[in-house]
Design a protein that fits this description.
The chain has 5 helices and 20 strands. It has 370 residues and is mainly beta. This is Copper-containing nitrite reductase.
């Protein structure tokens, strides 16, 4: 009888079969380090103020598709890379029944991953949608120049500007809006990664994924239904209502957008950006380690090997690789685990393939796993 595990069996075995297990931090989770016994459906506390009703949404989804990134660069000479970014202010759901006024690049969180090679020239056009209410701009950490381009790209609603700059050093770098209330704009979603590949490119892998973490500071409590206005007081106190991966609570995985699916014989590279604006991430894969970690996105450095948890500072990024010889769901978390169980910081990589009892044997019989 085949030992190929079905998706339903894997979800049941890892504790993702019920709503209370979505965070991977309840009894039945595959690792003790995520077993904090919290009811993920009951994390709201007493409201601090009466919220307005949830607003009609402008978009059904604010979370960036983690698969939606340009392919690896194969050319061997520098080129001009045209980039267009549109700033969009949009109402969307953080979780069902909870709406928020996001600020975005191209209508997604994080903003699009921009892929370049050392020596390339970025030819940027930035547009501020005429329906917006605020001024926006962009600061590229990969740009040598005043403000990383922030002053040159300041656009009022209905305006557009152009900027060219050469990328001269390799790495994965954050870009973000950098107007006066920079922390507010980043918190509301305005950050992304610009990747500068080294001249020799990156080692080949089977899959690449793109994730971004940030905090939301709102006038409501976590899980409280209604429209959550932004709270500058909570932001000043660094007390977030939500800590999110890709802009929505538990966005990426079988609980919502099931888009990071691989086979057990495949390798994965993840570009992980932390917009912040205030808190760093302790990035960890439950049930695995990072085979390689380029700390702070420093692709010119020698990667660390077999890293359990890597810190990613606000305004920085990490490039990590992993493989999964055992089938199942691998929960990617900020290992400050209250942010997972109570605030929403979770994404899931699902690996399909045959059971591998030489590496991991849960004691199932052949008939139970078939």
């Amino acid at each position: 009888m085949s030992l190929e595990l079905t998706r339903r069996q894997v979800l049941q075995a890892t504790g993702l079969g019920g709503a209370a297990a979505l965070a991977g931090c309840v009894a039945g989770a595959p690792r003790a380090d995520a077993n904090v016994n919290v009811d993920a459906g009951a994390v709201a506390t007493t409201p601090t103020a009466q919220l307005d009703a949830a607003k009609a949404v402008d978009v059904e989804r604010i979370a960036a598709d983690p698969r939606d990134l340009p392919p690896p660069i194969t050319r061997t000479e520098p080129a001009v890379v045209p980039v267009e970014l549109e700033t969009l202010e949009l109402v969307a759901e953080v979780e069902p029944g909870v709406t928020f006024d996001y600020m975005t690049f191209d209508g997604q969180v994080p903003g699009p991953l921009i892929r370049t090679r050392v020596g390339d020239t970025v030819d940027l056009t930035i547009r501020n949608h005429p329906d917006n209410s605020m001024v926006h701009n962009v600061d590229f950490h990969a740009c040598r120049g005043p403000g990383g381009g922030a002053e040159a790209t300041m656009v009022a609603p209905g305006e557009e500007k152009r900027l060219t700059f050469q990328v001269t050093y390799p790495g994965a770098f954050i870009y973000h809006c950098a107007v006066a209330n920079v922390d507010y704009h980043i918190s509301a979603g305005m950050f992304g990664i610009i990747l500068v590949e080294p001249e020799g490119g990156l080692p080949e892998v089977d899959h690449e994924f793109y994730l971004g973490q940030h905090e939301l500071y709102t006038e409501g409590e976590t899980g409280e239904e209604g429209h959550h206005g932004f709270s500058f007081a909570r932001m000043a106190a660094e007390d977030p209502t939500y800590v999110l991966m890709n802009g929505e609570k538990y966005a990426i995985g079988p609980q919502k957008y099931d888009e990071m699916n691989i086979r057990t014989d495949e390798t994965v590279r993840i570009f992980y950006g932390v917009g912040g604006p205030n808190q760093f991430s302790s990035f960890h894969a439950i049930g695995s380690v990072w085979d390689e970690v380029y700390r702070q996105g420093a692709l010119a450095s020698t990667p660390d090997r077999y890293v359990q948890t890597t810190p990613v500072l606000p305004g920085s990024a990490a490039v990590v690789t992993m493989h999964t010889p055992v089938p199942g769901d691998y929960k990617l978390v900020d290992h400050a685990l209250s942010r997972v169980a109570r605030k929403g910081a979770l994404a899931v990589v699902h690996a399909d393939g045959p059971a591998n009892p030489d590496v991991f044997d849960a004691g199932e019989t052949e008939s139970e796993s078939a």
